[in-house]
Amino acid sequence: MTATSRIGALCLTLVLFLSGCGYNQLQVQDEQVTAAWSEVVNQYQRRSDLIDNLVTVTKEYADREAEVFTDVAAARASVGSLQVTPEVLNDPEALAKFQAAQSQMGSALSRLLAVSEAYPDLKANVLFQDLNASIEGTENRIAVARKRYIESVQAFNGTVRRFPSNLTAKVVGMDRKANFSVDNEAEISQAPEVAF
């Protein structure tokens, strides 16, 4: 075998090796995770915007519920104070803070909607009904966006851990991404007691 054919064979082997290293797949999946995260944040922003309108309408009917309005305002401030960038995905602690703030927002929203039960005129208000339906739809969108994010992270983390792409991931500095979790996992894993 001549030197030229050895170099040709070596180049062909190198090209075949690099095509199977997973670099491009890692890049594509990293972008999918970022896009999925952006959709989660987009839906949380939509919820936040709708809550402002819902609070305004509810205040007109329920001036005595100041504590609920204060809780909603505090939850919105907590969510708004967090800088949500794609870099959050690489910082499990920052992601946990974001999740905790969103959980607080969801809890405050539940209490706000519970206030409406005490005010039949409010429940009959068309604007309130429309906002309430929009928030319910947004909560569903959040669930779908989170599911897509979880699936994207699962695919990315699988690639980061699978040979030979795990070697490429180490070389280019890509680590596993943090996923969503819940604060009260032990509590929600228990079946609720139903008493009639």
Account of the protein in words:
This protein is mainly α and 196 residues long. The chain has one domain: de novo design (two linked rop proteins) (Up-down Bundle), CATH 1.20.1440.20. Helices cover 77% and strands 0% of the residues. It has 8 helices and no strands. α2 runs parallel beside α4 (92-116), α2 (23-61) packs antiparallel against α6 (126-161) and α3 runs antiparallel to α4. The longest helix has 39 residues, at 23-61. The termini are far apart. The model has no long low-confidence stretch (mean pLDDT 77).
List keywords for this structure.
196 residues, mainly alpha, de novo design (two linked rop proteins), 8 helices, 77% helix
Percentage of residues in DSSP E strands: under 5%
Describe the largest sheet.
Answer: none
Into how many domains do the coordinates divide?
Answer: 1
User: How many individual β-strands?
Assistant: 0
User: Which fold name corresponds to the CATH topology?
Assistant: de novo design (two linked rop proteins)
Oligomer: single chain
The helix/strand order is: HHHHHHHH
**Kindly state the mean pLDDT as a whole number?**
77
Shape: elongated
CATH superfamily: LemA-like domain
Flag low-confidence runs: none
Percentage of residues in helical conformation:
over 70%
CATH architecture: Up-down Bundle
Task: Outline the fold blueprint.
Elements: H1 3-19, H2 23-61, H3 66-81, H4 92-116, H5 120-124, H6 126-161, H7 165-172, H8 185-188
Helix pairs in contact: 2-4, 2-6, 3-4
